[in-house]
Amino acid sequence: MKLVVRGGRVVDPSQDLDGDFEILIEDGHIAQVDKKVKGTRGAEVYEANGMVVSPGLIDMHVHLREPGQEYKETVRTGTLAAAAAGFTSVACMPNTAPVIDNRSVTEHVMKEARDAGFARVYPIGAVSKGQRGEELAEIGEMVTAGVVAISDDGFPVSNAELMRRALLYAQHYDIPVIQHAQDLDLSAAGVMNEGEWSTRLGLPGAPGSAEDVMVARDVILSEDTGGRYHVAHLSTARSLDMVRRAKAQGLAVTCEVTPHHLVLTDEAVSETGFSTHTKMNPPLRSDRDREALLNGLADGTIDAIASDHAPHHVDEKDVEFSVAPFGVIGLETNLSICLDRLVKPGIISLNRLVELFTTGPARVLNLPVGTLKTGAPGDLTVFHLKRPVTVRAKRFRSKARNTPFEGWRLRGRPVATILGGAVLTRPKQ
Fold first, then answer.
1. For the chain, what is the total number of helices (H) and then of strands (E)?
2. Which residues contact 127 (CB under 8 A, 6 or more apart)?
């Protein structure tokens, strides 16, 4: 089976490619990338005229909810949403029921993904058994089964000794420990960022220092152990500065940010009339924090943009702000938000955005994808820089509708997703 993709602007930061190239995919893998590829007899042709062609995009932080919470999302619906959004690979978090803390649950998730066939799924296993923060999970067993990192996700690893041992153990397998950096004593009952807007609205706030003190502790532990440490959905200026300094010291510290923390602030809670679709953890921060994150994208400190796709049933979010669950979905808005609000105004270049969606997360998780190098999986994303889109949750492939971007008019959208040489979606005529 052969597929030739031609006519588009090919952008691949892993090889410093940006120009007019043809791509030949053969037997599911990249065979050639050249101005004019050879050996194309009998190949299917995909015309990408006027569009950008990149390595298949990676979202390194999503919640697929299966097993145990299929009423919110399933592996099938979540990966269908990924494919529709231009993402060929996703890494899924372990907060399922049962938790991804052993071989059998890991294998179940991977089988469901293979059966669905919409995207590659890389499970992230739990740090501790049942995410209870008491004893290490069977990390070696999970790595053998296919996990690419460990994290207790929304349950921060509060015990410093447990985190130290996790960093040491994970080092043996060359995988990162991903931390939801939050001191639970400091954040307490906070439901939004502590600051001017929480005071005005009369809502309990969670200070940015709840994130900062955890990042500071963990950076020290990373330095002491040599372990790989990754900050999930980093949201504060001070945490970012600590990551920047850790990198300058040569420590194995990385981080990701979300689109909602890049384009929204805590004022959105007021502007939307207490919409629960502005309630997430970490919360939307101040404009100062947001500007710092944008600077971190531009100067290379931030390694990846990830959606933190967190589906909830509509009934769970249709309650008072203070009792609604944290989390918003983001897979199907991820690329368009970033093209419109980051690339279009010149905050970062297109090449840098593609890097944040491909080589960055691939490097953090040691993935074989996110590149067009010969022999790599034949995964591509084709997108248009100017094609308009209006965010309508009712059109999402995800089961969930909890987006903070409903009604936003954006320019730039995915038009085709190619997985292992198979064209999964095509532009509408």
1. 15, 20
2. 133, 136, 137, 150, 151, 152, 157, 162, 163, 166, 177
Which DSSP category does 58 fall into?
A: E
Please answer whether residues 82 and 91 qualify as being in contact, where contact means their C-beta atoms are separated by less than 8 angstroms: no
DSSP state letter for 168: H
Query: In the predicted model, is pLDDT for residue 429 greater than 60?
Result: no
- For the chain, give percent helix, strand, coil, nearest 5: 35, 25, 45
Measured on CA atoms in the order 177, 59, 71, 405, is the torsion positive or negative? positive
- Known active-site residue 18: no
Q: At residue 294, what is the residue type?
A: L
Q: Cα(360)–Cα(60) distance, rounded to whole angstroms?
A: 10
Position 245 scores a pLDDT of 98
Taking the mean position of all CA atoms in its chain, how far away is CA 126?
17
Q: Which residues of 375-400 are buried (b: 16+ CB within 10 A; e: fewer)?
A: ebbbbbbbbbbebebebebeebbbbb
Per-residue model confidence (pLDDT) at position 260: 98
Contact between 222 and 228 (Cβ < 8 Å): yes
Using alpha carbons, select from 366, 248, 362 the residue that is nearest to residue 299.
Answer: 248
Burial of 223 (0-12, 13-18, 19+ CB in 10 A): middle
Terminal-residue alpha carbon distance, the chain: 26
CA 70, 123, 3, 26 torsion-angle sign: negative
pTM: 0.97
Contact 240, 234 (CB under 8 A): yes
For the segment 276-299, the average pLDDT, to the nearest whole number, is 98
Which tens digits make up the pLDDT trace of 138-155? 999 999 999 999 999 999
Contacts of 161 (CB under 8 A, 6+ apart): none
Catalytic residue among 12, 266, 289, 308: 308
Sign of CA dihedral 341, 347, 352, 356: negative
Q: In this structure, are residues 229 and 203 in contact, taking their beta carbons and an 8 Å threshold? A: no
Q: Beta partners for 87?
A: 57
What CA–CA distances, in Å, run from 31 to 43, 44, 148, 251, 382? 12, 14, 26, 36, 18
The neighbour count for residue 25, using CB atoms within 10 Å, is 29
Nearest Cα neighbor of 42 from 86, 7, 2 is 2
Tell me the per-residue pLDDT of 16-36, one tens digit each, with 9 for 90 and over.
Answer: 999 999 999 999 999 999 999
**CB–CB of 46/28 below 8 Å?**
no
Is 79 in contact with 85 (CB distance < 8 Å)? no
